Amino acid sequence: MFYLTLCLHLTFLCNAEEGLEFPNFDGKDRVLDINERNYKKALKRYHLLCLFYHEPIPTNKGLQKRFQMTELVLELTAQVLENKDIGFGMVDSLKDAKVAKKLGLEEVGSLYIFKDDRVIEFDGEFSSDTLVEFLLDVLEDPVEMINNAMELRTAKHLSLKMNEVNFYEPFMEEPAILPGRPLSEMDIVEFVKQHRRATLRKLRAENMFETWEDDMDGIHIVAFAEEEDPDGYEFLEILKDVARDNTNNPELSIVWIDPDDFPLLTTYWEKTFKLDLFRPQIGVVNVTDADSVWLDMSNDEDLPTAEELEDWIEDVLSGRVNTEDDDETASDQENSYIYVTEDSYENDEQDEEYDSED
Amino acid sequence: MFYLTLCLHLTFLCNAEEGLEFPNFDGKDRVLDINERNYKKALKRYHLLCLFYHEPIPTNKGLQKRFQMTELVLELTAQVLENKDIGFGMVDSLKDAKVAKKLGLEEVGSLYIFKDDRVIEFDGEFSSDTLVEFLLDVLEDPVEMINNAMELRTAKHLSLKMNEVNFYEPFMEEPAILPGRPLSEMDIVEFVKQHRRATLRKLRAENMFETWEDDMDGIHIVAFAEEEDPDGYEFLEILKDVARDNTNNPELSIVWIDPDDFPLLTTYWEKTFKLDLFRPQIGVVNVTDADSVWLDMSNDEDLPTAEELEDWIEDVLSGRVNTEDDDETASDQENSYIYVTEDSYENDEQDEEYDSED
Q: How close A213 comes to chain B (CA, Å)?
């Protein structure tokens, strides 16, 4: 046994001094097979219970292997969080249909987290990294108590007043103050629900699918900007300006994607959207077929100004810039399969607008 | 075949609309088995060639499985970067010893990247995410040309002067200006080498082992701070102040770890260092045995001030605060195995220092 451990150490950690040991799955099964007999006990036993609701196990070997990989993600997550009082289980959508119904599991392929009397659906990247980070966040108290001198200074800096609830939208400098007093829990929940879709939202691994599903009538305005790259940083600053100017426009929401956060998707996006992601980009994506049009910044030496970007966004919101061709195929798009090539899209109009500075 | 694809889609992507499809390994072998006959051809053929230098394939089944997982990481990386003209190969330290010697591969378990006439050693987390991000960075030109009006404004904002090379250390507001003119390539390389170890450095997945190996006489001053958490953010601001005050002290380097960047290591660190990582922490870690001592902030309502932190750091650098007991075992620590329990460490001294504000 000692020899094996040593080998592993040599193969995988020979560069590491002590202090940075990534966990490998230790082979111990921690994920429960949930069924009618054990689900109540599991719910009672753990502070958090995470249930993966899945399709029946496939008979095909290749697919079985994929299924095992999914199980492995859960097993490793369970191992890493072993001392955090979190239970993990699998619920088969066919075999355990009754249990699923009782627990209110609906979306096959989702992970449901039971905490106290609430259910939280995890709708992010299915990797141990993302899951562990998400679950550690769920364990934390969602309300941060401001109760020491340092934090009071923080609060004052934000010009927070007594008995006032301020709502900070991402990337906004000024908060919205919740109207009405005294505020009930329902008032607050209602306000947050209404203002949840931010004018500028960052795509995050832990809820990326949720964000993507929350589209604007089937489209997203998507901006790619690498925060650590000088061009990307500048472009992001412009986006923030645009968002601050338009924070009261409920129709507008820009999804900001930092390619650095999604290395495995970067080349897929480049291919799907026919883009160079080494540069900042902004465009409109149709979420049904991933068809897209992008603001042409390739010939411009400068990035667009906030005003130019707002003009373009106005064109998008009014439908003047859209992902479909302006010819006859657009009228019956709901009933037929339309193939629109990137080349057939006419974007001379914008080129003109942004070339005029030269 | 259509059925299989559909199934997969249902199981893994049922939440996704189009636009966010994570790649699954497609089963095609792309990683080469490098040997004496093919290594020269491989070097010539690709813009980048990545060679994983590994121990001979183990005979034990469990270890073989781990080895296959490592191969899978490389295969998925190769698949994702398929159109980027990057070759991938494996070099067996026993079977291909001659090739390894010719190519200058030294550290088993490392990945070597050949670009033009240079070799870059990857010394980060061995995951597809991290590898893809790292390789995309390597593909980019390391020199950013400042050649348009927008970027010139940037440059002016940084008060960059003609024919001057400025060196920005991480988290510093003021640059160091490289002395002497005209500057040769060697001057610049030499200056960067000398100033490479920053006063405050962030641990990053892509070079975490390299950073960790670059210790200060066997220890690291490690600060844990979650940038997205209010306390963590405040503590990081204090750390930056300390770093700016001490940027000219070559003895001081603080490794800042944002636990959010390393979800899989968080509970390992909590266990190894006996810490609560929901709060900011700072301490000294002995990299040989991961023994550590941490500044006691648990009884304080406030975080330490920059001055208090500097006093503590002075104690660390002078050896007054260290990871070993002050008794007789310390004198012969190089020749014997010393077990120092956390409980036996006396840190009343600091408690006094920081309790004095109450």
A: 7
